[in-house]
Every structure is written in structure tokens, then in C-alpha cells.
Amino acid sequence: MPQIKYNIFAFSRKILVIFFLIMAVSGIFPFNCPAEEEKPVSKPVPQPITLNGDTVEFDASSNEAIATGNVEIIFKDTKLTCQKLVVNTQTKECRAEGNVRLAEKQGIIEGQKITYNFITKTGIIYDAKFMSNPFFGKAERMEKVSPDEFIARRSYVSTCSFDDPHYKLMTGRVNFFPGKKVNLTDTTMYVNKAPVLYMPEYNHNFDDPWMRLPISPGSSKDWGAYVLSAYRYNLNKNLKGLLMLDYRSKLGTAGGVLANYDTEFFGKGDFKVYYTQERQDEATRLPADPKHYQRYFTRLRHKWDINERTNIVGEYYQISDQKNKIKGPGISFLRDYFQREYERDEQPLTYALFHQSYSYSALDVLMQVRNNHWFDQQNKMPELKYTMPNVRMGNSRFYFNSTTTSGVYNSKASPKDITVSRFDTVNQFSYPLKVSIFEFRPNVGSQETVYDKGANGQSHVVRTMFKAGADISTKFYRVFNVKTNIFGLDINALRHIITPTANYYYNHTPTVPASNLKQLDGLDALTGSHYVSIGLQNKLQTKRKGVSVDLVDFLVTTSYNIKPKTGEKRGSSFQDFYFQLKVLPFSWMRLESTANYKHSGARDSVGYNSFNDVNYDLYFDLGRERSVGLGQRYQLKGGNEITFNLNWRLNPKWRFSMYQRRNVGHQPGLPRGIREQEYTISRDLHCWQMDFTFNRKKWEGNTIWLIFRMKAFPELEFGFDQSYKEPQSGSQVNP
To answer: Of 348, 363, 369, 395, which is most buried with the most CB atoms under 10 A?
Structure first.
């Protein structure tokens, strides 16, 4: 049924016109009202042209100016230089000859002859040489058909700025949209003077700066010599992605497809599939094992923003791994082929989530499936969650918040599966107020959880827990009128800020103990607790170039347990102390450190009343592409690693970087010495950047990377999901 939309404003205007016509005809409003005095319309002020040259003449009859010798003409944001020029001062159209150079925001064009209109920003230039970052090129004839489009004929394009570039794309026609995209037809790629590739058409969108043919060769212990390659396709604005083809000398050939799509009306997402028949090592293959393992990975991710308050997000992961079935759950396809994805999430979830926001609350509906049977995950079919953050109750000062979750859960736990229907709601009232200099917020609430059955077969188990607490905080500060640049500190006044906080929590013992419930997650293991969380933050601030800078930021937090109900007869006591320190004494130096002081636990436990973990990173920025980093990871009765990172520009052509991770502790079973070292030599090849990297890990072998990057696109990485990533100081952690 067609929809009819009314424009209420247009309708009202018509009613008013009819009303005034009736009044005029009836004589209430005469037609001969004095006319309102018209206001003069301001006309745009014409922009002048600035013209300079060795000789300048003006012909008043034709409104033409003629200039010769070192001519320079400027109009708005356009500048043209040449040796001879004729320009009409009214139409702003000109003819220029001799070393012509046209400079605009979009780029620079040089040639021997040009006709150009400064108002329409259109024209034709012959024997043209153009520069528009990151592209350079030449053309027999170049036409500027609009302010944002060039057409070059019988030309070449390259990201190399040399007159004789290392590589170039020879083409019959180029449609160039500066800062947006470039389109080439009938194109041949040349390396030096040798043709290497023909393309009927080539499109490059600047919004997608990645290379079309990324290639990453190298060698590693697990893969042997390898080449990772891909073709980056762009079918249209709604469908683009990768065609992947890889070769590993120890494992064989593998390949796949990645597609990024946008439906415009029903959301966007990506689809990825990767397949290999992994070759077995004949030296270690057992007679019962196959010669090849069939392994593949499928992923689908989608997000649909239905409106500002409603969206749907879903992910689907399916891994078929014959090697995992034979060798056991310690084998991971993601770890072997997509290390980055494995580090982000070694057991990705398959789920669909519907989210709806309201004025003061939100509803989430989650469907989660344990799609890969060896993953330690739960089925949630479904889970509903309704959240209401702090909402003011009428005109009172009371606030109310609530979180309610309900679902059917299944866990593949040993020795048998656990299936539970569970309803949980947490409701809390709070009353924020200011007491003298303190922000005070007492709260009280309860948590009720209902189970369809308990651990011993009982039905309809109801657990209740009473909750109470309070938050209190304040802030003190003092400003010291100190101004000094001693040792280059650049201090312009100092402000010391002290922020103490305390959070009190009381959770009464649940009416049903955890032993009577089936254990799915932490919610089922709740016990009573009574403690105070304490924090003290000290900041020392100054201003540098008008911007506030934290010279020192030091935070200490701990908890005080009040008469804990444990098997040990100990009274109230402090728990572990956590320290966070950030120091920025100079703009080129930064120190960050964390530490854990173990105070809780039995007195005969390991690390009692001592620092259990200490980590720090010290970083020096000594100039452009010159930096040094030093870090340490210390664990009491555990690992003790020191990391070192150096990045040094030797000269404009060469750069060297190194990374080392050394164990200096006495952890049993972990020998002292270098655990990892990596060295990279980078060479500037004018339009390319070459990196040669050697990595050695103890007990894992050696890896070599040879990586080429186009300088025009410095954000490029030639690998995908499995490629070199420069380590940072202290980025490694103890095993």
C-alpha cells in the first residue's frame, strides 16, 4: 500500500494564504498596503589577479594583459609561472608558454604550453609532467576537465619521482582524481625498460591504500622456505578483498579467499576461507598416519546497524582439522597458519547478538554455539540481558540500577555435560551526596539467582545474597610557582594533586552454598565477602607549550579484608598492594612501571611480605627514527627477563634495529641466557623500502624475512595475518 506523507509546513502556508485572501476580499486587509522598502542585494566582490613579469603590458580594448620573462600569476589558491603569458582579466582565461608550472592544492603540473581558465579551473597542457602525492607521471597531452579531475593521454604513472623511474605503468589513458582515486586503461607495467605485466584496466582508490599484489617471502623452522602472496581485488564499492596463494616448503601449498562486503541496507561484514592439504614429514610420520592432513578454516562476521539504537552483530567460526583429530587437542590450525588471530583469541566464539537501547536501559539477546567441539566454551541458547544503569528516581536524590540475566546454558564439562536454566538479577539503590570535601555514595541491594535444578538433583533452587557498600573520594591540590628549564625539564609551574578513594563492599553469605550448585562460571561460585578497596593517587603536573603534562603519576591500590570467613583463623588483614608509576621528566624520556607486593596469604606461602611481580619499561626518543628501549619482567621464584630494543637511522639510506630478550633469573627448567634476538637492516630504495630481518628463538629455530614496502604507502604490510611485526620494548611476557 503506498505511503502518503504530508508536509505540515507547506499545508499550513497554503491555509494562511487562503485566509489572507479572504480577509483582503472582505475589506479587512486592503491590497494597497505600502510596499516594504527593498533592501539592496550585495554583489560578490570580484577577485583580482596578481601578475608579475619582466615586462607587462595591458590592452584596454581587449582586456588582455601580456607578460614575458619570469612570469608569475596568482589567483586565489592557484599559482602559474612561465616565460610568456596572455590573460583576459575579465574571463580569467590565459595562454602560457615556456617552462609552464601550474601549482594547486591537488598537485603540480609542468609542461611547455597550456591554456587554462582560473575561474573554472579547466584547461589543456602539452608535454605535461604531473605530481600529485603519491603519484608522478608524464603525458603527451593532459586535460583538466574539472577542478577535481585530470585526463592524461599516452602517459605513464609511478610512485617513483625520478625522471627515469625504477618502475612505471604505461597507459593509453589516465583518469586522475587527486586525493580520491586513479583509473588506468590499457596498461603495461615496466620494471626499468622490461614489460612484466599487462592490465586491461587498473583502479586504485586512495581510501584503500593497500597494494594489489602483496608478497612476503621468508624462511622459518616450522614452515621452511615460504612465499605468502595475494591479489587484492576491488570489484565495486561494496565488494573487495583478497585472493590468497601461499607456499611453504615443509607443508605444501595453501590458499583462500577473503571478501569484505557492504549490503548498504542490511549491514556489512567479511567472509574468509582458507584451505590446505598439509604435507606430512616422512621422517616422523607414523605408518597409521595419512600422507596429508586436510585442514581448513571458515569465518563469517557481520554487523547490521538497523538504527541508532538497534544493531545485530554475529560471528561464525568453523575449523575442520584432521591433524587435530589424530594428534590431539594440542594442535591448533589458527596457531599454525594465522598467528595474529590466534594471539587475539585462540578459541573464537560463534554467536549472534541483538542489542536494543532504550532511553534509560538496554536489552541484549545472545545466541552462542560451541561450534568447534574441542573448544572449552558454553552454549547459550539463548541468553537475555536487561541492563538499567543509574537512573534517578523522580525528583529525589535516590538512584537505582539493575542488571537481569536469564538463559539456558550448556557446558561440555568432564565427566558429563552440564545443562542449566538460570535467572539472575542484581538490584541496587544508591544515594550520592557531598559531605564537607568528600564525595560520598552509599548503596544497598540484593542479588537473586534462580536455577531449574541444583547439583544434587533438587529442583527450583533459589539463592539470595544481600549487598551493601559505599564509595568515598576527595581531591587535594596545591600549585607551586616554579619555572625552570634546568637539565631541559621545561617546567612552567607545578601542580600536585592527591586523590584518595575508598570503596566499601559487604556481600552476605548466599542462602545456598556453591557446593549445592552446578558450576558453570564465576556466578555459581559466589561466596560472602567483606572488604574495603583503598586507592591513593599522586600526580605532579606542569605545562609544556600550553598543554598540561603529567610529570609523575603514581597510584597505589590495595584491599582490607574484614574478618574473612575462611578455614584459616586469621583476623582482618590487608591484601596485596598494587603499584603503577608513570614518569615523563623530559619529552624524549618515558618510564612506566607496575609492581605487586604480596601481603596476603599464609605466612609460609611463597612470596609473603615481598614484591612478587615487578615490571618496567624505560624509553628514550633520541631523534627521528632513533630510539632506545629497556624493560624488565621480574617474578619472585619465577622468570626474570630483560628486554632491549634499538632503532637507529644510520644515514638517509640505511637504518638498523635490534631486539633482545634475555633470561637472567633462576627459574627451574628455564636456562639463563638469550631467549630471543632479532636484527633488521633497512635500505631506502628511493620509492621502495627493503627490510631484511633475522629472528632467532631458543628451542624454536631461526626465521628470516625479506620485506619490500612502497614508500608511497608507509602503512603497508606485505603479510596478512601471518607476517613480521616489529617488537616493542617489554612486549614479550614470561611463558
So the answer is: 348
